[in-house]
Specification:
The complex is a heterotetramer of chains A (about 425), B (about 290), C (about 200) and D (about 110). With about 425 residues, chain A is an alpha/beta fold. In chain A, about 40% of the residues lie in helices and about 15% in strands. Chain A is built from 13 helices and 16 strands. In chain A, strands 3-2-4-5-7-6-13 form a seven-stranded mixed beta sheet, sandwiched between helices. In chain A, strands 10-12-11-14-15-16 form a six-stranded mixed beta sheet, sandwiched between helices. Chain A has a two-stranded antiparallel sheet with strand order 1-8. Chain A is globular and about 70 Å long. The termini of chain A are far apart. Chain B has about 290 residues and is an alpha/beta fold. Chain B contains nine helices and 13 strands. In chain B, the strands form five sheets. Chain B has a four-stranded parallel beta sheet, sandwiched between helices. A two-stranded antiparallel ribbon of chain B has the order 1-8. Chain B has a two-stranded antiparallel ribbon with strand order 2-3. The longest helix of chain B has 15 residues. The radius of gyration of chain B is 26 Å and the shape is elongated. The mean pLDDT of chain B is about 90. Chain C has about 200 residues and is of the alpha/beta class. Helix content of chain C is about 30%, strand content about 20%. Chain C is built from six helices and seven strands; from the N terminus they run βαβββαββααααβ. Chain C is globular, with a radius of gyration of 15 Å. Helix content of chain D is about 10%, strand content about 20%. With about 110 residues, chain D is mostly beta strands. Classes of the chains: A alpha/beta (about 425), B alpha/beta (about 290), C alpha/beta (about 200), D mainly beta (about 110). At the A-C interface, strand 8 and helix 10 of A face helix 1 and strand 2 of C. Strand 9 of chain A pairs parallel with strand 11 of chain B.
Chain lengths: ~425, ~290, ~200, ~110
């Protein structure tokens, strides 16, 4: 096919619905090709299936390892008519988020996925999305950040943007990736929330980890998500002219109080999200029959003396290790953080109140505290216990390193020593001697 | 529909006093080469215009005034404003050649034709003045501003009257006329710079535009507009995307999203107001600042 | 729980094979997790895929360090990678090649050896050295944990273009038929005898 | 270029946006009320139109950055509420009908 032929096809495919007659009807419902009930696939494909179920209007994509097959699946599903959305193959992540902001302000339900350097490049519009209160769903197929240069998993990228105001949920399994991605549209679009949502899945281990998963019925998802309403609060619509994001603040006039009002509104929305996330998980369990702990998961904690705290796909091996330790008579439990932002302080405190020492396993580094970020956040929550809680920071799985059950055996062993007064005041680098 | 009309402008500095225009006028009006029939007269610099250096030549020509004294003074209603063309018509049958009309005329535009003793004045040759075409030096110019005004004068200025641009700001001029022409079925993007800096997107809860307007980032104007357009295409609504960007927002930091949008054939009207520098932040040089200009 | 490591070279479809095998095993009612070794899978470079399958849900998502089954879908990869690293005693090795068992080097704790001239078959079926689907047939023959039908269903859902699907169906059948099974009766072989090929009832 | 363009599936779920009349003002900063600022007090010079010379050619209207030129029956006048006194109209008037004078306040 000659270049101008392919350009002609591209133009025709991109040609807008002309307002003269052949404009596509704005509202029409046609049965989609039936989605399968179950699939054997990896996390990236699971995310694409979830997006198909959520029926977005506009998807903007730019590939980056280990997310790249996700956007390939999206393109394939759109081409095959499994997803009826405007697919924008833009020139970089910065434009990915920018295009989606525009589309959302015009009323579109939107989606994308990125990680690592892509997220860093997307950062300028990324930090603006919560302020615009746009419920854009973005999967982070998390990857360690440069430098050192690496293309493998790790959670440093997602952790670096934790103060921006996006809701962030970390998934343990491929099934949870699919379910959480669908739930995140409802959570983000809830009128009391109206915030963007990151669904974080570990690069490689989840993104390319193949397993069998089940798909919910499209009708259940449509009922679960309900009527979408994206730009009721702020629109770029000639029929409702308004200025979006005028200059606000300064020292005089209404500026200061206005600005505080918006910041406070954002914080309230994040707090509202805690309940909305729990409600969403509850209704999902009832409608679809799969239950995931929404904020914090307590595993064998009730009769535990001490616990390890985990986040993401490392949790599977950790649970196996906890079970093995229990067989050896070790009173260890496990606390898994699913919702990292907003940080579930109350739920964490309830879990921490059951143990006398914790070993927090991070997959990222907090350079300021010489510890892991989850370690620092957990300690902050522990402040509410009003008692000293011995804690150790473990940092593992960086740049795709594998945290195996053997590693967790040593982590459990080290954490146990905190009970008898041992102090570990600098991070234990789990994979240093692999 | 306002009421403004084209008029003839004289550039004394270009006039060589060759009176070709007078010959052309005489021929056009009476077919003769006797320049006494010419309705236009180049006279030695008798009448200098306020503020200009004394010119060698001055122009005596009716400018079809908006508030013509001649019409007021004429006792026999021989002079009247033609509503369509704006020309002050002279009716020979009613004119009694009393010359009262020449009193108060600012431009010496009405005079006696020494050849036939009748009053004569310019009638703009039905909008295509012969003198202007004839002048070899471009000293005479047909000013067609009125046509623009007739076409767009009645259209609403879609910005608020008060924008805090500097006195005489060309950007303010450009954006007001642009938006008036594009109309209100639009989504307007004004990337950070003087244009939103003057308040088009507003300040502390007040907006400076009557149309949907927003601050994109300086870097992503084109990709945000592309996203909006995609959704409106999807909804079957034909809405114009308009960007009023500075040279930095187009050619420097905003270029990548613009180049991507162009490659993807996105549809938007992208206006670059090239004032050749980052003026809003206090005149730093931009990609379009010519070398040595600061 | 079984732990399988598949070794091959980039471009030979080792990772795709693990995906198809995963689908087949799931259709047999087993729980499966499979992750490829992550790296720059350049054509020709040694590549590995890790799989776990069991009749109980699998939680851990890790690489495989002590496989009970190893499959090399390329005859020469055994010279560039120690495919037996960490292998459990009494394991099964499924290998492609024309060599006879006595010409091959493998741990003496190996219990079962399955040999299939997948390259020969590939040259006839595909006229190219693509051995992954053939070796899936070999895997079925060697372990008895998955049937040919399940493998074929897995092949159908992989997006082969029309001719490709037919060739691959043929390939998996030939892989199954032409795989030779050797039960090595050395001292530390696994206690429970390996089932004869094709018997599914003795599922672990 | 024979093969047809694949038409996209139509599965837009019914989408009637529901716009509440009252939106809490702590969500995304938006502004619907027009700004009332009138920059008339920026002037240090003021344009005056000589009615006898104005030929109503609208050049001043075209060049006025603030667009505060108003058409009257017999001449074009300047709305001093928003005129910033930049003097462009005086500079551009082809008939020299506008002159700038010191701003004397009201």
């Amino acid at each position: 096919m000659s270049i101008d032929q392919s350009k002609a096809i591209k133009q025709q495919a991109d040609a807008p619905a002309k307002s003269t007659g052949q404009a596509r009807p704005a509202v029409s419902v046609k049965a989609l090709r039936r989605l399968p009930d179950s699939v054997v696939c990896d996390g990236n494909e699971a995310s694409a299936w979830a997006v198909a179920l959520a029926r977005p209007d506009v998807i903007a994509i730019y590939p980056i390892t280990p997310q790249s097959s996700l956007v390939e699946y999206l393109s394939q599903f759109v081409a095959e008519g499994l997803i009826d959305a405007e697919l924008m193959n833009v020139e970089g992540e910065h434009s990915v988020m920018s295009a989606l902001q525009g589309a959302a302000l015009a009323g579109a339900r939107t989606y994308t996925a990125t990680c690592g350097p892509g997220l860093a490049f997307m950062f300028e519009p990324y930090i603006r999305t919560p302020g615009l209160r746009l419920p854009i769903v973005t999967s982070l197929v998390t990857r360690d950040t440069l430098t050192p240069q690496c293309v493998w998993g790790g959670q440093q990228d997602a952790m670096l943007v934790k103060e921006v105001g996006w809701i962030q949920m970390y998934c343990e399994s491929v099934q949870e990736v699919l379910d959480t991605t669908v739930m995140s549209f409802r959570i983000g679009e809830h009128p009391d929330v109206m915030l963007p949502v990151n669904v974080n899945s570990d690069g490689n281990y989840l993104s390319y980890g193949v397993t069998g998963i089940d798909l919910p019925e499209q009708a259940d998802v449509d009922a679960f998500l309900g009527q979408k309403n994206i730009n009721w609060h702020a629109a770029l619509d000639p029929e409702r002219p308004m200025a979006i994001d005028p200059l606000t603040g300064g020292a005089g006039g209404p500026g200061p109080s206005l600005f505080v009002g918006y910041r406070k509104g954002q914080c309230d929305a994040m707090q509202n999200a805690l309940q909305v996330i729990e409600d969403a998980h509850e209704e999902w369990a009832q409608r679809v029959g799969r239950r995931f702990a929404p904020l914090i998961e307590q595993y064998r904690l009730d009769d535990a003396e001490y616990a390890i705290v985990t986040i993401g796909s490392m949790t599977g091996a950790a649970k196996d290790a906890v079970d093995a330790a229990r067989e050896r008579g070790e009173p260890v439990g496990l606390i898994k953080v699913k919702t990292f932002r907003p940080f579930p302080v109350a739920a964490m405190q309830k879990a921490l109140s059951k143990v006398k020492a914790i070993g927090v396993v991070d997959r990222a580094v907090n350079f300021g505290w010489n510890s892991g970020p989850l370690f620092q956040e957990t300690l902050a929550a522990a402040h509410g216990l009003q008692r000293y809680l011995p804690a150790a920071s473990f940092i593992g799985g960086l740049a795709g390193a594998d945290i195996t059950t053997d590693h967790f055996d040593r982590i459990i062993h080290d954490t146990a020593r905190l009970l008898d007064g041992q102090v570990i005041d600098s991070p234990v680098w789990v994979n240093q001697h692999d | 529909m306002g009421n403004a009309h084209n008029s003839i402008i004289f550039h004394p500095e270009k006039c060589a006093g060759c009176s070709t225009c007078m010959l052309a006028c005489a021929r056009a009006k009476t077919g003769s080469d006797d320049i006494r029939h010419s309705r236009i007269a180049i006279q030695p610099g008798a009448m200098t215009l306020a503020g200009d250096a004394p010119a060698e030549t001055a122009l005596a020509l009716c400018r079809q005034c908006g508030d013509p004294k001649c019409v007021q003074n004429c006792p026999s209603t021989a002079l009247s404003i033609n509503a369509d063309s704006g020309v002050i018509d002279w009716n020979g049958n009613k004119c009694i050649d009393c010359l009262l009309c020449t009193v108060g005329c600012s431009y010496g535009g009405i005079a006696v034709n020494e050849a036939d003793g009748r009053v004569m004045k310019c009638d703009m040759c039905a909008g295509d003045p012969a003198c202007v075409k004839a002048c070899p030096n471009g000293a005479l110019e047909l000013n067609r501003s009125a046509e623009l005004y007739q076409e767009f004068g009645h259209k609403e200025d879609l910005f608020v009257p008060g924008l805090s641009a500097c006195q005489g700001c060309n950007s303010e001029l450009l954006i007001r006329h642009t938006l008036r022409k594009v109309g209100s079925n639009v989504v307007l993007a004004t990337p950070p710079g003087c244009i939103p800096g003057m308040g088009t997107v507003g300040y502390n809860g007040k907006t400076g535009s009557k149309v949907p307007v927003f601050h994109p980032l300086l870097t992503n104007t084109a990709s945000m507009l592309a996203g909006i357009k995609k959704q409106y295409n999807r909804l079957g609504r034909d809405v114009t995307m308009l960007a009023l960007a500075g040279d930095g927002g187009v050619g420097d930091v905003g270029f990548q999203s613009l180049s991507g949008a162009a490659e993807r054939n996105e549809q938007m009207l992208f206006v670059c107001v090239d004032n050749e520098g980052y003026m809003n932040t206090g005149m730093q040089s931009s990609g379009s600042t010519p070398a040595g200009s600061w | 729980m079984h732990e399988l490591r598949i070794h091959g070279r980039g471009g030979q479809g080792a990772v795709l094979a693990s995906k198809i095998l995963a689908k087949a095993l799931v259709s047999e009612g087993l729980h499966v997790t499979a992750i490829p070794a992550f790296g720059f899978e350049r054509r020709g470079a040694p590549v590995a895929a890790f799989m776990r399958y069991s009749d109980r849900p699998i939680r851990r998502i890790n690489n495989i360090y002590s496989p009970d089954t190893v499959m090399s879908i390329d005859p020469s990869v055994i010279h560039s990678v120690n495919i037996f690293e960490g292998m459990q005693a009494g394991g099964t090795w499924i290998h492609t090649g024309r060599a006879e068992p006595d010409e091959l080097v493998f741990p003496d704790s190996l219990a079962t050896l399955a040999l299939c001239d997948a390259v020969g078959i590939a040259m006839q079926v595909f006229r190219r050295n693509i051995t992954n689907t053939i070796m899936l047939g070999a895997f079925a023959k060697a372990t008895g944990l998955v049937s040919l039908d399940a493998l074929k269903k897995g092949l159908e859902s992989a997006s082969f273009r029309d001719a490709g699907l037919h060739q691959n169906m043929l390939a998996v059948e030939r892989g199954y038929e032409e795989t030779r099974l050797f039960h090595l009766n050395n001292a530390c072989a696994a206690k429970t005898p390996k089932p004869a090929a094709g018997a599914l009832e003795d599922r672990i | 270029m024979s093969q047809p363009i694949k038409t996209r599936a139509d599965n837009l779920i019914p989408y009637q946006p529901i716009y509440p009349d009252q939106v809490p003002d702590t969500y995304c900063p938006v502004a619907k009320e027009p700004a009332q600022m009138l920059p008339g007090d920026w002037r240090s010079m003021r344009p005056v139109v000589d009615r006898d010379k104005c030929v109503k050619c609208a050049t001043c209207w075209i060049y006025c950055p603030v667009q505060c030129v108003v058409e009257k029956a017999a001449w074009f006048d300047i709305n001093l509420a928003t005129c910033k006194g930049c003097g462009i109209c005086a500079q551009e008037c082809p008939q020299r009908a506008i002159t700038m004078i010191e701003e004397a306040g009201k």
